[in-house]
User: What shape does this take?
Amino acid sequence: MVDRIALCGDKATPLLKLSGRLRTAKVPPCVLLNLRHWHTDPDKAISEVLHTIKGDSLAVRSARNGEDSHLGNAGRYLSLLDVAADPEALSHAVRRIFESYGPLRDNDHVLVQPQIKGITHAIVASTRGAFASAYDSVSYAEGNAPDAITRGDCPADTWYLDPAVEVENLPRPVIRALRLLDELRSKIDSTPFEVELLDTDETLWLLQVRRLPGSLSTAETEKTIQCATTQLNQYREDGANLLGLMPDWNPAELLGAHPRPFALSLFQSVIGDASWWRARAELGYSRPYADQLIRPVAGRPYVDVRASFESLCPAELSLEERARLSGAWLGRLRANPQLHDRVEFDVVVSGFEFDAAARLAELDCGVAQSRLVPLLRKLTTGALDAGNLRQSIRYFSQLLMIPAPTRGSLQDRIPFLRDHVAQRFARVARCDFLAQALWRSAAR
Assistant: This one.
């Protein structure tokens, strides 16, 4: 019986073990450059790499032990493509990648491979579908960019398929990827895994195979549960009494159910820290009990539903009235959790609707309709005022004329995104919801 490969977060070892053993794909030649060898005699180390790896350009990639053992480390370290195959360029690339590791360890490595040419598709495939479902998934992008999928800014097609599906009539990149996944299942332990691939006319190249986040050992699972429990207890103490992945800004759709830490952090900085409720306050809504919209739990971006609902109460209501109204909405969602992805229309009454009185009577929120309905009418007519909407249209039409900062760190540029784009967009998005709710009520 052939020993199966265990995926333990080491990028290079699985590739070296699979090299020459696959029928449905090939592993590019690999050379691991060790930190100690690099420090002892860098010229000799570079000479050995160039003697082994042939070609006029190289892919120089991070290969730190444990790099792929945790979601937060994926893409954390530098990798460089199309590096010229000469000593000076390769030395510079290796030095930059080691520097990206931060404090160095003796077992640190850099992986050098030939740059694949003639690429027709970049592919990422895995043995798990959306929300960890038991489907194979294949995402592919056409073109010669090797990082088109992992970079995340290119159009891509994604397929979710039962592993037993007949593949003959599917697109060629999907067929090739599925056949490789099927072969790898016989060579890798039972852990769910993901692969990065490059497709050329002649060959499917395997660049990486890694264990999927969430496929944890017992000890790791217990640690994750403990961390999540601590987070939930803290949120409860802060006042968050209901969390959801899809209410309000729908982070599960916008960011993904388990986004990378950078994506979540960027969303928080631009939208979730303040822009979301400040835009509503400009329209006449109240400030919620907490500024934060998102309460991450084990990396998943949960919405603080209480804060969301409080930010949709008219500001002219008293604190007691706001508590009653938002509490009634919370109660309705708890009783009907299937409405979590359409709270703006089926749970909350945040603007004037032609049947607002009937909906509020059904809700029994404890706030007099004679007081609440006029406030909702005032809020809606102000938000949908034609002059205000024309001003917003002009602003976004002229946005490209505003000089955006092009230098400095991303952190230096975030205030521009937040102040000139995000908050303005959040305000217009709220106007859109008000207009949709009004139109739907007219249809009813």
